[in-house]
Design brief:
The structure is a homodimer of 233-residue chains. Chain A is of the alpha/beta class and 233 residues long. Chain A has a single domain, classed as putative 2-phosphosulfolactate phosphatase (Alpha-Beta Complex), CATH 3.90.1560. Helix content of chain A is 35%, strand content 19%. In chain A, strands 7-2-8-1-9 form a 5-stranded parallel sheet. The first copy, chain A, has a 4-stranded mixed sheet with strand order 3-6-4-5.
């Protein structure tokens, strides 16, 4: 039986040995939800970059630029980190360059993984099925918020563990913690996350619609994967 | 109303601003439980040091050396990290030098705090009363295990938050997470921690008696405090 661990923040990623493992990157509010949505709507690929400057550079090279900082679209870009930005046929077949506050940093904190895939509540079932099919040791890597552990990504980790409880052994205390947290939520994600700092942050930016979307289960059946530095299906 | 935050691992301590705050160091299994027990039994002070070498050095200077690594007493020392080692009148009035796997490192990760105190289930009520009396912003700093987040210290943080819920506002997601985890335990600590990695580690070392002791509530009414590099009452 393969094992599955949880890394609660990119700041803790150095404690993981990713070799020969599948890493599942999670940034529920909103980066990985948005990636899944964009790719399901026909975007060809997503290039994650660390800085807004890199994002501008690749935009000049023909990519469509998407840049978010602190929950808002960066000036000079048309696309940000809202899944609703990507539900248009205009982007089908396009290559996107994407920089977000926490998501990109998390990807760059993973070294030597056999495979990197992307999960959110909107593709939870598809991610669970992919991990079961791959049948390899795995680590769920939560993006958190500015290196701090956050509630929503930990909750997602717990929800994914619940779906994998028969096929994987849980490795380490963070996995047990995330799973117990999920059990405590009783599946009522929105109520459970009510006081979380990022929910409040997004609500202050009038993004309740985004939050509701990000907490919807199994809307898409696709699992984005990293290959040659870009994310695609 | 003052606020209280939780730092889930010394690895995340750099994300906290400790200035003008009270830091509560937690290493339930077993360092802070042992410190509380030793001081309550009359030990004069405890000098926490990082390395076994420093421990030997201070032992030669007249301190009584206590050294633990990986759950066991280090060769050449009479005292380790079991609270039962310290329940003897022989140690009354003595100065101890103490190095543990995770506890000491945590103390050294806290910079600029107004006050550093030490908490465990055995003095939970006393710690809650002290924080309420001080009426200052506070951070609960969990020692974890080798920089990783652990279940028992997070659970303790949640238990302490529960006792402070009326007097403090919870600051940040780790506090919410710890509190929800505590609620999920329904006060049944031993059962709740059953699968935790350190419980298994200690049980393999035949330390069930220590575990039971460490999970006892409010056995002592004292709160150790750091002053001039040493811990005393």
């Amino acid at each position: 039986m393969p094992s599955i661990a949880v890394c609660l923040s990119p700041e803790l990623a150095r404690l993981q040995d990713f070799r020969d493992k599948v890493a599942v990157v999670v940034d529920v509010l909103r980066a990985t939800t948005t990636m899944v949505t964009a790719l399901d709507h026909g975007v060809k690929s997503i290039l994650p970059v660390k800085s807004v400057e890199e994002c501008r550079y690749f935009q000049q090279k023909g990519y469509i630029g998407a840049a978010e900082r602190g929950g808002k679209i960066v000036e000079g870009f048309k696309l940000g980190n809202s899944p609703f930005d990507y539900m248009t046929p205009d982007l089908a077949g396009q290559k996107i360059v994407f920089t977000t506050t926490n998501g990109t940093k998390t990807i760059h904190a993973i070294h030597g993984a056999d495979k990197i895939i992307f999960g959110a509540f909107v593709n939870l079932k598809a991610v669970a099925e992919t991990l079961t099919r791959l049948d390899k040791n795995a680590v769920i890597v939560c993006a958190g918020w500015e290196d701090e552990v956050n509630l929503e990504d930990t909750l997602f980790a717990g929800a994914l563990l619940e779906r994998l409880a028969r096929e994987f052994s849980f490795s380490g205390d963070p996995a047990i913690l995330a799973h117990k947290l999920y059990l405590q939520s009783e599946g009522k994600f929105s109520m459970f996350l009510e006081d979380s700092s990022h929910m409040r942050r997004l609500r202050n930016l009038d993004l309740q619609k985004d939050i509701d979307f990000c907490l919807t289960l199994d809307r898409y059946n696709c699992v984005p994967e990293m290959a040659n530095g870009e994310i695609s299906l």
